[in-house]
């Protein structure tokens, strides 16, 4: 099965779209209408923001990604710098605006403290979190805001070891409430990598990064122009190290 096919019928009777959403037709129409309005708001915000972002946004995409990986090395080595920054100064500087240099799509798992992992403090990272670090229309819209309005230079989809959402999808067991909605966006990774948890975690992160790059015109255009780098990574809970996936 092509993980990037526009639509895939699922056993539950729902449709998994290329963006990973699980939507019925009325919800899709509602989202499209909302998207048009949101796009107008984003464009307006981008035009009205005449003041260029400060130091963070002057980084190139490669420099932004390197800054994150350098921070992760400090985290692994136990040499955090961000905790020593003056929080009162940081709060005052970011009270009216934010100027993050990178965005991260992370799993909601409480064992993945994104800012600590990359040794970054207030206002440095634009973090979007959802179980399984999957893309949905709302997730994509949030990341598009980070790119179009905030000017982030790197976008990292961060999977992690022992991911419960991925494990539950592989097992395919019945779950209460709406938890099962997480299965559909992760199924393409299971179809691609089989039942090996680590392999599916990596495949899922790469698939979600590719979906963002292909389905979002804002992210695709920024990447094409060399203004943004989109990558997938894996966080090892035991060691604290982040590895980039290629």
TrEMBL record:
Pfam families according to UniProt: Pro_CA
MF annotations from Gene Ontology: carbonate dehydratase activity; zinc ion binding
Cofactor remark from the record: Binds 1 zinc ion per subunit.
Needed co-factor(s): Zn(2+)
Superkingdom, taxonomy of origin: Bacteria
EC number(s) recorded for this UniProt protein: 4.2.1.1
Catalytic activity, as annotated: hydrogencarbonate + H(+) = CO2 + H2O
Protein's UniProt keywords contain Cell inner membrane: no
Coiled coil: none
Residues where Zn(2+) binds: 107, 109, 160, 163
Keywords recorded for this protein, A-Z: Lyase, Metal-binding, Zinc
InterPro entries in the cross-refs: Carbonic_anhydrase, Carbonic_anhydrase_sf, TAT_signal
SMART domains in alphabetical order: Pro_CA
Family: Belongs to the beta-class carbonic anhydrase family.
Protein name from the UniProt record: carbonic anhydrase
